[in-house]
Amino acid sequence: MNDNEDDSNFKYNKANIELRRSKCLELLSKGHSQNDISKILNVSPALISLDLQFLKEQARSNLRYHLQEKLPFEHSRALTGLNDLLKKANGILDNAKDPKLQLNTINVLANLYAGILTMATDGNIIQQAMERVEQLEDIKNGKYENTNININTEPEKEREDFQDDEEPAPTEDEEDIEEEE
């Protein structure tokens, strides 16, 4: 078998395609350019470009699944677990006679309540992310052709009305008070 046959197998054999894509992602994560990767793997830059396109789509699909299926389930499971632990810790506190055990249990309960509060606020973020993914899917599928939906995926920059070292302009009430003085 000569080198050309090895290259051909590396390019087109299914197992080798997966290996090449894996190696491509590994090299990319180490800071190599597409051209560097094509030279290292001895394949064309166009093939590396196609591999990266495939990997990006696969990542989008994985993220979509994670946001729509896995994350809501794991969120629910974790919240149920925290509530179960809350019941058990309250049972321990109710039966504890030792003051040290009572204080430790109160500390555990405080941490559990903090976790539940975090889960409750994170739930809203998860819901917003799921809605955003659904919106983007609908836009991609042409469902919102003539509507004015912002599809910019870049985070919005906050507008600054004044520099950090400047004070904001006084309001009319503040000006009136200054005039009276």
Keyword list:
single chain; disordered N terminus; 181 residues; 75% helix
Topology:
Blueprint: H1 3-12, H2 14-29, H3 34-41, H4 45-95, H5 99-140, H6 172-180
Helix pairs in contact: 1-2, 2-4, 3-4, 4-5
Structure description:
3% of the residues are buried. The chain is 75% helix and 0% strand. The chain is elongated and about 75 Å long. It is mostly helical. The chain contains 6 helices and no strands. Helix 3 crosses helix 4 (45-95) and helix 4 (45-95) packs antiparallel against helix 5 (99-140). It starts with a helix and ends with a helix.
What is the gist of this entry?
By secondary structure, the chain is mainly α. Helices cover 75% and strands 0% of the residues.
Hey, roughly how much beta strand do the residues contain? under 5%
Determine the mean pLDDT: 78
Q: How far is the first residue's CA from the last residue's CA?
A: 96 Å
Q: Give the proportion of residues in helices.
A: over 70%
Order of helices and strands: HHHHHH
The global form is: elongated
What does the largest sheet look like?
none
| Class inferred from helices and paired strands | mainly alpha
**Rg estimate, integer Å:** 28 Å
Per DSSP, the total helix count is 6
Residue ranges: pLDDT <50 for 5 or more in a row? Answer: 1-8, 153-166
The strand count comes to 0
